[in-house]
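Field: COMPLEX_INPUT
Field: COMPONENT_COUNT = two
Field: RESIDUE_TOTAL = 771
Field: MODE = joint
Values follow.
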Amino acid sequence: MYKHIPSGGKSRTPYHEFYSDDFTPRPHYQLLWDHIRSTGNNALEVKSHESQLALQAEGVTFTVYGDNEEGIERIWPFDLIPRIITASEWVKIESGLKQRVRALNLFLADLYGEQKIIKDGVIPPELIYQGKDFRREIIGIVPPLGIYTHISGIDIIRDEQGEFLILEDNLRTPSGVSYMIENRVIERRIMPEFFGKYRVRRVEHYPSLLLAALRSLSPRGKENAEIVVLTPGIYNSAYFEHTFLAKEMGVELAEGRDMVTINDIVYLKTTKGLQQVDVIYRRIDDDFLDPLVFRSDSALGITGVINAWRAGNVAIVNAPGSGIADDKAVYPFVPDIIRYYLGQQPILNNVPTYQMTSVKDREYVFDNMERMVVKAVSESGGYGMLMGPSSTPALRKEFMDLVLENPRNYIAQPVVYLSRHVCYMDSELEARHLDLRPFVIYGEDIEVVPGGLTRVALRKGSLVVNSSQGGGSKDTWVLAE
Amino acid sequence: MRYLIHHETILEYAEPVREHHTELRLAPRTDHQQHLVSCSLETEPEATLASYCDYFGNRVDYFCAIPPHTRLVTRLKAEVEVNRHNPFDFEPVAPHLQKQWLHEAIKREPRYNDFLLHRSLLTPPVMRLADHTARAFPRFERELPVIQSLLELMGWIPTVLEYKSGSTVVHAELINAMKQQAGVCQEFAHLFISVARSWSVPCRYVMGYLAQDSSDETENSTHAWAEALVPGGGWIGFDPVHNLLANERYIAVAVGRDSYDAAPQRGSFKGDSPGSEPVVTVQIQQVQQQ
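Field: COMPLEX_OUTPUT
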C-alpha cells in the first residue's frame, strides 16, 4: 500500500474542466461559451436570481447542523452554468462504476458468508472485525437477489492530469439524488436555450429506475410489491429527499412507529388496517434499524425487521451491513477487491491512500502533514478531517495524537487539487473546485444514471465540497454521442 | 451425562405493554462436547414461535406478543446430553508450534477473530485494569503449554476478586468490579477473557448452568465461565469461580464475545412501564440412562 506521491514531473495545477491550457474553452464547452458571451452578464444575473426564486418556490432545501443541535434549513445552492461530461468520458466512468459496485457486492456477500477473501489473506481480518459497521448479526442471511447495495453514490474527482479518480464510496444511505433531479428541472426551466444546443442525456427518470429495482426485490413478486420509504423524520438533514423520492415513486413515506412486525411479516399501519410491506427503502442507519438486534434504545426503527428479513418476507434497501464496504479503512483495498472477485484491473483508480496502521506509511504522513488530508474512517460529510494545506501546527499535532491513539480509525491521502470549473459568483465568472457523485442502481441489472450531483466548493480556493460545509451544486450534463 | 432442564422467566409490568418482541438464548448448545436432545417452549400470552441459529452458533427462539399484556412468561424445557470428559485428554502441541497452531485455526475460521480482537467495557484492554489491582497479573509463558498459563490465570482470579452475590449488575463494566475487588461469575469470566485475549489466545464467554452433584432435583440459576482455544485441545472451559475446568456438570447454553452477546433474554416493547426485574426459576434434573 506504500506509494510515494510523485512530487516532480507532473503538474500540480488543478485541471480546468471548462478551459484548455491556452485559456480557450474546451471543444464541448464552445457552444455554451458562445451563448454566455452573446447574452452577457446581465442576462446571467437575471437568470441566477430566477433560479433562486424557483428553488425557493419548489421548497428545495437542506439542513445544516452546526455545533448547536438545532438545524438550519437552507435553500439548495445552485450555480446555473452546467458541468459537461463528454460521451467518451462517460463510457469510462460508467464502466468503472459498474465494475466497482459489482465487486463491492461480491465482497459483502463473501464477508457475510464464507469470508474467502480473509482466508486467502487478501484483507486483514482486523480491518473487518474491528470495523464499526461490520454487522456480524447478519452473517448467514442471504438478501433478495444476493444484492446488498441497491443504491450507491460514488464520489469521483478529477486530478491535475484530468484523470477521474474514486474518492469515496457511499453505500449506506447515500443522499443527493433529489438535488441532481431538481438541478436539471431548474436548469431546463431557466436556461431552455442551452438545451437546444446540446444533446443532454436524461436523469429525470431516476425515480422510475429506482422503483423498478425496488419492485424486483419484492418477496411477493413485482406485481404486488408494497414499498415504503422509511425516514427518521422531519429533523433529518435529508428529509426533503425522503419526501421527494416517496412522492415521485408514488409510495408511502413512513417512520418506524408507523410499522409493526408480526410473526416475521412487516406491516404498515394504515387507516384501512394493517398492510403487508414487501420492500423497505430505509433512510436510517443500521444502528437504529431494529432495537432487538442493534441499538436497543432506538425509537426510529422497526422491531423485528431483521428477523422478517432473515425469514425472506421483506427486502431492506440497502441491506444492513453494507457500511463495512465503504469504511474508509477498507477503501485502500478496493482495487484488490476488484482483482480478487472479478479478475480485472480497476477501470477507475483510487486516490493514493496511506494506512495509519502501517508504521512506514504513518511516519511518511507525519513528515508531510501539510500536503495531506487526514480522515477519520467512521466519519462522513467532511467532519473529523484535517486539510493539511490550511491547517495550523497545533491542529496537525492534535491529529497526530488522535492517529497514534487509534490508527485503525484514520487514513491519509495526498491533497488532490480537485478540478475547477467556471461558476457564476457575485456577478462574475470565477473558477471553483468541484467533484461528482453519480448514482448507481443495482436491481436485476446495474445501471448508472448518466449524470450525477456535481458539488462545488463555493469558497475561493477551498477543496471542501460537502453541502453540510457550505458547498454548492451544478447541473451535470452527460452528452449523447 | 443427560439433564432435563426447566427454565421459567416471569416479567411483570405495572401498565400494559404491547408489540412485545422477545429473543431467547436458552436452548443448550450443540457442539463437540454436548448435544441438545429435545427442546420445547411455552409462552404466556401464547405466541407463534420461530427460531434461528445466530452467528456464534447459538440457537435463538423468538416470538412477539402484540396485544396489550402486563405479564410475560416463558417456560423452556430442554433435554441435553453432555460428554465433557477429561479436559486434559488431548494431544498437546509442542510449545514452539503453539503460536502457529492458533494462527492456522483462526485463518481457517476467521470468525474466531472476534474472540481475539473484541474489546468493550465488559472485556477491556488489560492495561486499563492494571491500575486497580495491587497484585501482579500472571505472565504468559511462551515456553510452556498454553493451558499451563491459562490454569495459572484461572487460579489467580479469585485472589483479586471475591465472589459476592449481588455485588454487580448484569453486563456491568469490569473496571467497577476491579475497584471493589468483588463480583459474580460474570466478572470472573470477563477478567479471564480480557487477560487471555491480551496473550493472543482466543477466548469467549459462556452462559450456561452448573448442575449440582446430587442427582436430586435442585434449584439452580444460570452460571458463566470462559472458553479458551487451546492448541491441540480446541475450546476448553475454564471456571475461575470454582477454579475448575468445565466438566460434564457444565451445560453450555450460549457463547459470545462477552455477556451481552450471550444474554439469555432480549426484548423490546411499546409501553410506559419499564417492567419488574425478571423472576427466574431453574430446575435441573439428571436423567438416568439405560
